[in-house]
């Protein structure tokens, strides 16, 4: 479980139960309950050693770190929260603290949540746009109260607090929440932070002796994002729901949630859906030349590849035939290589898992987190695709030699075949690429963990191996005035491919000998006709790639957004090639929810191969209606497009780099979204029309207002926005 | 060369002398040769004193290149006649496509027989003299029309793509719909590599289909699909007599392209230019691009391009043309 996002889950939960208006919640409740019983692990302190409180982001990390720091010698005591234990031991932090009494405990992700005061809990009043400047309260949700209390109590007797949250922006913010809880108990407490990216022993020990300060800029960036998400999400969700529900029908009972990442994500799905649906296949013509020599049939590719004008293709083809003989103009044979993969990032991990392991991105992340918590792999949320030169990668390879599947390969690397991995261009400065930390025997893992671990290990070993090598031969010839070429590869050394079944170097073909200047009469020259095929619907890997390229969400949250738009019934997935809902225009709506009239993909032979188990994303009518509605409002930037969100992401980066401040960003962004909100309200009927249209498409009769326009078929052009106005 | 502003007759005589002088200078260039009458009328609109000859020449040239070659009295009669397509050529074109159909699929057999070289007039001939033409249409026939439609529509929405990234572009900058290869305006449109090309398995060439993941250079010398750079264009050309012929870019002509070629632009086809089945085959050696543009034509062409592409692709026409959006009339603003 990704407990880190607990606050989001809490909001989600709240959203779901919005109907039970819950006025009574207040910050003051925090203090009430727990003073009476402070009977936590109060081990008697007789020595005068400095007391240090350590807090990790989750219990498993607390335990792992405690184990390493104490050398296994720690005492465990329960707290009021069943999941949280306190571990006590001694540890020498070095100067200035020296030998210390340490208590290690944990939180479960975010400790606090933000929300609006009770008088904003009604959806109808005050109006949704008041949420843009309503006060925002930071509260400790009920199920975290005992955790906060534990920290507060432990802090009372401690000189310093050492924060062991994950080293990323979110972790930094959680660190600030822990600090605030600790200061409630002890205003004088010193606050330090440990930087680490995996829970391997030596790494943890060295992190404990190189403590740093909490990075307030990162804390601010996340705080800004949290506040913006709250305001924008609530304002638009309430606005959408209140505006569209009265339209009745299937909209009646729905909560139409808006999220600044959700919508652009949905936008991608809708966009591709229309590209598939509106696609017009076109014929093309191509000249294919084959020449047989030494028993080898060599296929030559036309440099023009293909032409979409038959007449012109015929003219060129005829001229080839008239020329009769072809002249070899270029022959080359040179070593070639297929590059080994780059070190593994989160986005890549998710893409590979969805493609090769039949997991969703979300599942992959959950499993990766488990593997990380158990200490088998490094921190799975990273953008870095280059290993630090100083890392002892050989040692990590050596740990894999005992495996029966890739052990011999790893052994070979250890014995001298090791190569430094390629250096990608991304470095988040916090974590190395995802790699195995220790060896995990297959019996130690469940099925999902085993498969994901295998992927991580194989990728890592591939990175530490050598590129695959071969010889590429190229022949170019002139046939009439047309240029043709043939390409052949002979694989000489497979190298990394031997351990990396996710890739292959096929298309191996050996060319017979040709010499420059030589003339020959091709065995066969054909004018062939083909047809373009529609792109396919987005797979999760495609969607992740799009989100990544457009700055929607962080690598850690992408999978969640994808899950969210399914949960909200804005999109659903179908097995590739399953043809979506076929022609669901049959009014099957009441049973299948917002099923969508997915015009089946016109896929020819060229479509994506295989595809067993790969799922494709298709928007529901609801999803289409929302995106269409916003697109047609012709804002400068539609909410269904990635631009606004990308801006927000850039602003967060700017805060982290000290180029702007939280206050400034909040003010700007809230103003920006408020403007969009006002425009949306002014053009609400556009959105309503889009919904009506989709409803009709689904087969429902909405007699109230008939929109005089043929349905979906024309959508491609309807989506054109007129030039922007200011 | 500043003239005093004296008698009219003297003016007329002067200007006809200058007109002749201009004509003579132009006859040595590849610029189409204007008629004396046209030069006259041009000069008569100029305020006296006339500028130096060099700048007059430049004006004449610019006017010529911006004019419709077929308009009466524009070109010197003799020049127009000697720089037009042979009439029989222009007629062959219409019949060509149907006849050529059989060639497809019949292997190389057909080429073996004969009729090569100078065989039928329809097969292939070469221009025996220079021909001056203006461009009436240009198309990129190496890309699907639908792909171009999608691109134009995205552009109209103010979007482009950079790899997988959707980027915002200034909308309707110069009213020029056609942004491809246009270097002005900062709107750079790169072909979407994430789309069709990558996914379909490398177009059947390298055949390492599974690997469309990272934008790393993981494809070992995979055959590249022709992007806008290596495009093949077809054109519709018109000579001074009004005869039109289609043309094909046999070898890349650097100045030809969507976004760089204007409608009404003038070209000189040198003697020896091949014409196959009534299609003029262009290569940089025989085709001299002179430049120019007929403003109104170009505008109309650019405005109608999206609709033409849609039609030619076989798509239903966009229902409401330009302005008619889904928005109810009520929401003005």
The ordered string of helix (H) and strand (E) elements of chain B is HHHHHHEEHEEHEEEEEEH
Strand content of chain B: 5-15%
Which chain pair has the greatest contact? A-B, 102 and 89 residues
- Widest sheet: strand ordering of chain A: 14-11-12-13-10-9-15
User: Taking strands numbered 1, 2, ... along the chain, how are they ordered across the largest sheet of chain B?
Assistant: 1-8-9-6-5-2-7-10
| Oligomeric composition of the shown chains | heterodimer
CATH topology of the largest domain in chain A: Topoisomerase I, domain 2
CATH architecture of the largest domain in chain A: Orthogonal Bundle
Kindly report the name of the CATH homologous superfamily of the largest domain in chain A: Topoisomerase I, domain 2
Q: Write down how many β-strands of chain A occur, each being a DSSP E stretch of 2 or more residues.
A: 18
Family (chain A): Belongs to the type IA topoisomerase family.
Pfam families (chain A): Topoisom_bac (PF01131), Toprim (PF01751)
EC number (chain A): 5.6.2.1
Domain Toprim (chain A): 51-197
